[in-house]
Amino acid sequence: MKNLIRKILKEELESIKGTPIYHFTTVDSALKILESNELRGTLPSDEYLNLDKRLAKTKHQMTVSFTRDKNFKGDQSLAGQSKQPLDVILVLDRNKLKTRYKLEPFNYNSIDDDDLYKMKNKELEERVLNQKIYPVSNYLIDIIYKGNNPKIKEMLERYKP
């Protein structure tokens, strides 16, 4: 009986695929991330660091942002200076990522509140306060391409796990 229970538990654990989190990006950025096998954090402005005291106190003052919302509608502000659409979604395994990096829920709407890290509403963003995530292939579950260029689709397919 014990062996049967162990077998069932083992099968259940093996069926868990992790919890996906999503990083929306442009095609150019996605290809750079996949070729270098590293997802680099962004360095915010000094003005932003004055508001976000937690980030300001970190070693590199950089963050990698994710969402738990697979239907997220990212706007152009996420692409920085680029005019490219956010046609690529890198899907990472949140559970596996947590074994090496600290993830924290984050709400930009409450950045100037003293209670920044005690979320009162359901926040769907998470961030890793780190310079980079490397090797990103260790955490990659899927790559979703929303565009319609077959050459780009083929290039991205080569990096799929």
Please tell me about this protein's structure.
This protein has 161 residues and is an alpha+beta fold. It has one domain. Helices cover 29% and strands 21% of the residues. The chain has six helices and eight strands. The strands form three sheets. Strands 1-4-8 form a three-stranded antiparallel beta sheet. The longest helix has 14 residues, at 2-15. The model is unreliable at 114-121 (pLDDT under 50).
Order of adjacent strands in the largest pleated sheet? 1-4-8
> What percent of residues adopt helix (DSSP H or I)?
25-40%
- For the termini, the CA-CA separation is 37 Å
Radius of gyration: 18 Å
Structural class given helices, strands, pairing?
Answer: alpha+beta
Mean pLDDT: 80
Label the overall shape. Answer: globular
User: What order do the helices and strands follow?
Assistant: HEHEHHEEHEEEEH
Query: Would you report the number of β strands?
Result: 8
List keywords for this structure.
alpha+beta, 3-stranded antiparallel β-sheet, 29% helix, 161 residues, 21% strand, single chain
Write the layout of secondary structure elements.
Elements (H helix, E strand, L loop, with lengths): L1 H14 L4 E6 L1 H10 L2 E2 L5 H6 L1 H4 L7 E4 L20 E6 H5 L4 E4 L18 E4 L3 E2 L6 E6 L4 H8 L4
Antiparallel strand pairs: 1-4, 2-7, 3-6, 4-8, 5-6
